[in-house]
Amino acid sequence: MNAAHDRRPMGLATRAVAFTVGLVLLVTLVATASVWFGAERERTRHQQTLAQNSARVWVESMRQVLTGESSAGMTSIDPTIDQVLGTRDDLRFIRVMDAQGRVLGEGAKSDADTAFATRLAEQALERRRTLIRPTGHDGALAVAMPIMHEGRMLGVTVIAWARETYRFSVLLALTPFFLFLGALLLVTIPVAIIVVHRSIAPLDTLTQFAKKIAASGQAAPIDLKTGDEFETLANAFNHMLSKLDASMRHIQQVAFVDPITQLPNQDRFQRDVDSFILQAKAPEDAGAVLVFEFQRLPKLLQTLDPEAARELVRLVAERFLNAVRTVDRLVRMRPQGEGMIAARIGAQDFAVFAANIASPADAARYAQHLNAALNQPFEWRSHKLSLAAHCGVALAPRDGRDADAVIRHARMALGAAHTAPARLKVFTQSLDREASARLMLEKEMRGAIERNEFRAYFQPKINLATGRIEACEALARWVRPDRTIVSPGRFIPVAEESGLIGPLSDAIMREACWKAAAWARAGTPAKVAVNVSALQFRSEKFAEHVLGIVRHAGLCPSQLELEITESVVMEDPDRAQRLIEPLRAAGVRLAIDDFGCGHSSLAALSKLPFDVIKIDQQFVRALERGDAQATAIVEMILALARALDLEVVAEGVERRVEAEFMAERGCHWIQGFLYGAAVSAPEFSEMLCRQAGEDVLADDAAA
Ligand code: C2E
Ligand code: CA
Ligand code: CA
Q: What tens digit of pLDDT does each residue of 449-492 get?
């Protein structure tokens, strides 16, 4: 918290006390000043009286000297003055003059006063009365007193007194006032403090309340019944607090609750798991994070209007929550579901946190029960639905120091759950290692694409009618600088996940088209088939892009065949048709790859503008095992192709019997290790040249 917050709001109290003290000081100052001036006046009067009395004594003795009453003669005035000045510190000077203004005697401690004394003496002689004047500096006082005898003025005496002798007595005069001031302060300060504190106590309460709200955002309402502005202020505070509370609740709702399902959202889930991990102390303070994905849900939602989609998501959330509660009761023996949080952490992802599940085996058992409960079919709008739940599990804190890590690991396990038994997977370190290895591979692949290390290899396709290599399939190979070759089985899944499949497939298509154009120019033509990835097919400009490559390579479009897997085509048959149309119009041939693997309806298939069907290798393998069902399927595909006037390629043919089987049933093309695996471009052109040479020899022999 910043310092401004901690500063006491006692500005008011301090100011009140300071004001009181200031007032007391001012009053004392004024009182002291008036006392001082009173004392000063008194002192001046006293000095005047003193001076007048002393002057009177002097005048009397001068009168006696001047009238001869005294035994001392006229000449004794000067020495007397010197003697007196020598013994008295308070006397500054003395002058005696006769009525004509002649100086009869004089003594001074400084010359400065002489002129002043003369002027004052003359005035006293003129006015025939006593004059008292400050000398003008040092505050000294001069008295000029006429010397009278029987109504006649004999002369004048001027005496000046210094002032210093009174200083100390002034301080003494002030002492009672200082004592009074001290006593006053001693009494007033505590009284002022008490009074101020009493009067601002409600303000203090309000301040504490405001501080509490500022610090924690909450506080109990204040109860102030002072009946004044403080009470009004307290009521206003209470009102504000209740509004703030309501707003906070609303914000919490918006920030942490999924608006559609009313379940906690991802942020809330993460916070709760984090706080569980933070509080965990003993090893048995463990919990499991389970992340669920419902495989059928995304596709289903795509087909629904937004309102129906929300309704379905709500229903799924309800089923999810019920399943979790049931399993919690049965497996974890928690009838009230304590230590359990069910949340919606993504558009189609749900999660559960279950406390007190410490071992992977317990977590797997819990997940298995949940999967089973969730996979129960249910009815919605007269549809029978099954969710096909998958579950990834990670343990907290075993699999992560924070919620983020644990949830990430649970998601990683979910990725592996798709191919795992019981559609569930508990996170293991090896999963993490695999993910890291994938990341590494992805990084390497980016560099490899730039260095052009992905090359097209060509697998021959035999036309069964002629028994000659008349076509090939381009298959990607990663030829590393050390000449080792990586097969697509390793890099295609990573390329698909990372989006690198796009540039990779492009590179293969470009090379395949250039090579096929070169073979045609060399007089050894061979059609080339190129595989199309789901990602490439997603682009609206797919046809334009392919035709651009074909034109650029100078290849006749009819020499190119595009292999698109059945599953990609069937994702959206209408769209597939739209994308394919311009290609077919240009003369490019289209093949359905891996036919028989998907679950497409034959009716839908028959409407699509394809030229070729490629029977998947698994049926050829099954033939070899004498699988009657596989035989029937292959025969059916061949019959269908005949009816739709499509060509058929059997791939993965490794034995002569398989080739014969296909030939007998009207299959057009054969591809497989029986005739050769994919080879590099130079090797394949050599194969074509060799075949052309053999043809010439055969022709010659026939001739
Ligand atoms: P696919 O399109 O079904 O390709 C046929 C796969 O079967 C090739 O594997 C090929 O080498 C293999 N094969 C051919 N004859 C036989 C045989 O007699 N016996 C056996 N056991 N296998 C045979 P490959 O080259 O490993 O390719 C695997 C998959 O990778 C391909 O399956 C294709 O889906 C994908 N792929 C390969 N190259 C590309 C490419 O350039 N682009 C795209 N998008 N996918 C590619
Ligand atoms: Ca293929
Ligand atoms: Ca295939």
A: 999 999 999 999 999 999 999 999 999 999 999 999 998 998 99
Average pLDDT of the residues in 434-461: 93
**Mean pLDDT of all residues in the chain?**
86
Cα of 651 vs centre of ligand 3, distance in Å, is 7
Q: How many residues does the chain have?
A: 703
Nearest ligand atom owner, CA of 616: 3
Does the pTM surpass 0.85? The reply is no
Q: What is the pLDDT averaged over residues 347-371?
A: 92
What's the mean pLDDT in 542-558? 97
Ligand 1 atom, smallest distance to 671 CA: 15
- What contacts 353, CB < 8 A, 6 or more positions away? 269, 272, 273, 276, 287, 288, 289, 290, 340, 341, 343, 396
pLDDT of 145-163, one tens digit each?
Answer: 999 888 888 899 988 877 6
Q: What is the DSSP letter of 227?
A: S
Q: How far away, in angstroms, is 681 Cα from ligand 3 center? A: 20
Token pair of 398, please? 């075993």
Tell me which residue has its CA closest to atom 44 in ligand 1.
533
* Angle made by CA atoms 374, 307, 342, in degrees to the nearest 5: 35
Ligand 1 pocket, Cβ-based, cut-off 6 angstroms: 459, 475-476, 487-489, 492, 501, 505, 508, 531, 533, 563, 593-594, 617, 651-654, 672-673, 677-678
From the CA of 615, the nearest ligand is: 3
Report CA(616)–ligand 3 centroid distance (Å): 6
Give the ligand with the smallest distance to the CA of 652.
Answer: 1
Q: What's the N-to-C CA distance of the chain in angstroms?
A: 104
Distance between Cα 523 and ligand 1 center (Å): 27
Ligand 1 pocket test: which of 461, 486, 492, 549 has the largest number of ligand atoms within 8 Å of its C-beta? 492
To test the ligand 1 pocket, which listed residue (506, 511, 531, 532) has its Cβ within 8 A of the most ligand atoms?
A: 531
* Helix-strand-coil split of the chain, %, nearest 5: 60, 20, 25
Q: Please check whether residue 143 is in contact with residue 159, taking contact to mean a CB–CB distance below 8 angstroms.
A: yes
Cis peptide before 557 (omega within 30 of 0): no
Residue 39 pLDDT > 60: yes
Angle between helices 306-330 and 360-374 (to 10 degrees): 130
Atom 46 (ligand 1): residue with closest C-alpha?
531
pLDDT bucket at 9, cuts 50 / 70 / 90: very low
Which ligand has its closest atom nearest to the C-alpha of 678? 1
Q: Among 385, 391, 349, 371, which residue's Cα sits nearest to residue 258?
A: 349
Nearest protein Cα to ligand 1, atom 12: 652
Angle (nearest 5°) at CA 454 between 453 and 455: 105
Q: Which residues contact 602 (CB under 8 A, 6 or more apart)?
A: 640
Return the ∠ at Cα 342 (arms to 340 and 347), rounded to 5°.
160
Dihedral sign, CA of 483, 487, 490, 492?
positive
Q: Phi and psi of 306, rounded to 5°? A: -55, -40
Nearby residues for ligand 2 (ion, Cβ within 5 Å): 531, 563, 593
Residue 8: is its pLDDT beyond 60? no
Between strands 103-108 and 131-134, the pairing is unpaired
Residue 396 has pLDDT above 60, yes or no: yes
- Comparing 54 with 110, the larger pLDDT belongs to 54
Model confidence at 601, in pLDDT bands (50, 70, 90)? Answer: low
